[in-house]
Amino acid sequence: MTRGDVIVIGGGLAGLASAYALHEAGYGVTVLERREDVALETSFANGGILTPSMPDPWNAPGVHWQLLRWLGREDAPMLLRPRAIPGYLGWGLRFLAASAPRSYHASMRANYRLCAYSLERLRQWRVALGLEYAVGTLGTLEVYRDPASFEQAVAEVRALAPLGLVGEPLDPAATARLEPLLDEIRGDLVGAIHFPRDESGDALLFCRALRARLEARGVRILVNTAVRTVRLSAGRAVGVETAGGFVPGSHVVVAGGPWSTALLAGCGVRVHVRPVKGYSLSIRIDPGAGPRHALSDDSLHAVMTPLGSTLRLAGTAEFSGWDLTLRPARVQALWRLLAALSPTLARTVDRSDAQPWCGLRPMSADGRPYIGATPVAGLYVNTGHGHLGWTQAAGSAALLAQLLSGTPPAIDPRPFALTRNERRAWRGEIQPLEQHP
Length: 437
Ligand SMILES: Cc1cc2nc3c(=O)[nH]c(=O)nc-3n(C[C@H](O)[C@H](O)[C@H](O)COP(=O)(O)OP(=O)(O)OC[C@H]3O[C@@H](n4cnc5c(N)ncnc54)[C@H](O)[C@@H]3O)c2cc1C
Prior knowledge:
This protein has helices spanning 13-24, 63-70, 89-97, 101-129, 147-160, 172-178, 203-216, 260-265, 328-341, 343-348, 393-405, 422-426, and strands at residues 5-9, 28-32, 49-50, 78-80, 140-144, 168-170, 191-195, 199-200, 220-222, 227-233, 236-242, 245-248, 251-254, 273-284, 294-297, 302-307, 310-319, 355-364, 370-373, 379-383. It is α/β, with parallel strands linked by helices. The protein has one domain: FAD/NAD(P)-binding domain (3-Layer(bba) Sandwich). Strand 11 and strand 12 (245-248) form a beta hairpin. Helix 1 runs parallel beside helix 7, helix 1 packs across helix 11 and helix 4 (101-129) crosses helix 11. The radius of gyration is 21 Å and the shape is globular. The chain binds flavin-adenine dinucleotide. Flavin-adenine dinucleotide is lined by residues 9-15, 32-35, 40-43, 46-49, 226-227, 255-257, 259, 263, 278-280, 314, 359, 361-362, 383, 385-391.
């Protein structure tokens, strides 16, 4: 006997994790995925880092100057394509407004709590389900090449330390001792921060392994099944319409990545989520040839993550609408990252079978995901995780299941609610809400 039958729209990290958490909470669950398999969109080849250490939204104070400075530069870490501007207008104004220091810091703290909770849940799931996904547990190492950025990063670590963040600043010599691969660029670095509690792992392997465990537990996962609309009756979500017909459900969860915005708009529900494109490059390496830690390079806004016999380089943000063209200049930027972090690897890896990829991050305007109820009874949402969707997947799903089932939430859900008042956040009034245990 289940508590109800939940339909989850979307078979990416957010949808599959939601399915597991809801199944654990006692619901019958059906996942509907329009593609031929799970995790073929944004969850396919991301950077692979699980980083409570990077909870900061991308709209840091001063982001508008950066966007202007980088306008039209093909190799810019954050690139706004002028022809895509109309598609980002309303969202973009909110994105810029949320870069006000108070809003930015409030989002950072709320994200940190969700990230830390999420990693805790993920470790439990990994053990309980025996999931294998090229897990790395040595933490991340963030390297810095200019003193001002290093100082600012150390200050941010100190600000989050009372919430539980552990980060150890290292000088270049100590950095190279911890990560011998960086010895040859030691002279370029001013320092690094080691975050020992971060993890890494392959999101695609995770999704595939989770799918197998879900199906073994009786969760239905229907691929090649695109949801056209959510059906409402007397103001309540009662199921979804697909090409194959109506699928009834007691609740509907929209976890459709950046496509969620349109699905929700069809029900009169508004979320401020837009696609922000990112690139990755997967390179085969010999065991032991890559770094021991996941590395992040602040100056290049990109990461390099060892995932078993794959080295994953990822990063860059492009505001270019729904365009999924693989642009050579952006892929080149990732090769440059490799050369900047390990000139030896850049010379020796086999470039011929490297796999470039790009995906669309579901980015919310204020840098926090939307998790929980909508104004439509029975209709829930779990999306908008942007650059943190892997890190926050398990925790967001657990929080969603707690909210849907009426169980006391493990962390304060209000910063992630649809009803959050961004204006209050801009004025810093979100802070008292965070007193929740
Ligand atoms: C280059 C890059 C690097 C990244 N690196 C990291 C990282 O290192 N760490 C981290 O934490 N995060 C990272 N991210 C972010 C993370 O990958 C995303 O936030 C996450 O994958 C989003 O998952 P999702 O399930 O919301 O979306 P998706 O994976 O896109 O899943 C949504 C699914 O919904 C389906 N769908 C949509 N509409 C419908 C419909 N109408 N009917 C049925 N199905 C539908 C889609 O087909 C899709 O499969 C990165 C992202 C990118 C692009």
